[in-house]
Amino acid sequence: MKTSFYRHAVLVGLLGLTLLPAGSVVAPATAQIGGIVHDPRNYAQNILTAARTLEQINNQIKQLQNQSTSLVNEARNLTSLPVSTLQELQGQVDRTRELLGEAQRVAFDVGDIQKIFDSRYKGAALSGPQAAMVANAEARWNDSVGAFQDAMKVQAGVVTNMGATRQSIGTLVTASQSATGALQAAQAGNQLLALQSQQLGDLAAALAAQGRAEMLGAARDAAAEAEGRERFRRFRKGN
Questions:
Q1: Do the Cβ atoms of 126 and 133 come closer than 8 Å?
Q2: 239 or 87: which carries more pLDDT confidence?
Q3: d(CA 56, CA 112)
């Protein structure tokens, strides 16, 4: 509003100057008010200068406002997400690992598996004395039972984790939808990816435990078949 007023005053002053007869010379005003000489040309020039100065000030104010808005947006983009499910996810992963670590008789270890198979499922274990064959057969049965029990425990642990996983998903989705900046949105997305990785880990653990039980059962059947052939051979030799 002030800028328009000053511009209007300048235009009025300039218009007054253009309406003077051609060839006339504007002499400095001799009228005095309280001893002050009034010069219309200086007055118009001063008004024009003031208007330009005011316009520059307005432009500077707009620049400062834009900079302030930019800083506010940058602050929002750098604001960290106030929600974290990392501790819960780590706890779920640790519980699943503990269940796998409690594997009965045959652990999830390459060296242990090799040792057990050499002593119970092949070679001398299938052709030794009668008492040893019976003991090995019972040990193989216990291996299979224990493996299926382990698989069921791991599956139960995965199902238990599903409740906490559902709660974490709800928390992270809510946080993502209400994110005020790019950083919060990215952190919410990263935590959702971590949650997905935890679910895949649980699935892999359940499949590993189930596969272990099935493989031990298949190995037990193969050992029983080989042992049966050995018993039949001995029976025929005895006859």
A1: yes
A2: 87
A3: 83
Q: Is 200 exposed, middle or buried (0-12, 13-18, 19+ CB in 10 A)?
A: exposed
pLDDT higher than 80, residue 174: yes
CB-based contact 92:202 (threshold 8 Å):
yes
113 in the same domain as 12: no
Is pLDDT at 173 greater than 80 in this prediction? Answer: yes
Residue range 72-98: average pLDDT? 82
Which structural domain range is residue 114 located in? 86-238
Examine the domain organization and report whether 73 and 154 are in the same domain.
no
Q: For the ranges 25-39, 71-85, 187-201, 214-228, which has the lowest average pLDDT? A: 25-39
**What pLDDT is stored for residue 49 in this prediction?**
84
- 103 and 197 in a single domain? The answer is yes
User: In the beta sheet, which residues pair with residue 37?
Assistant: 32
pTM assigned to the model: 0.64
Task: List Cβ neighbours of 60 (8 Å cut-off, separation of 6 or more).
Answer: none
Write out the two tokens for 197: 């990785």
* Domain tally, the chain: 2
Distance CA 173, CA 171 (A): 6
Nearest to 227, CA basis, from 139, 110, 107? 139
Q: How far apart are CA 207 and CA 197, in angstroms?
A: 15
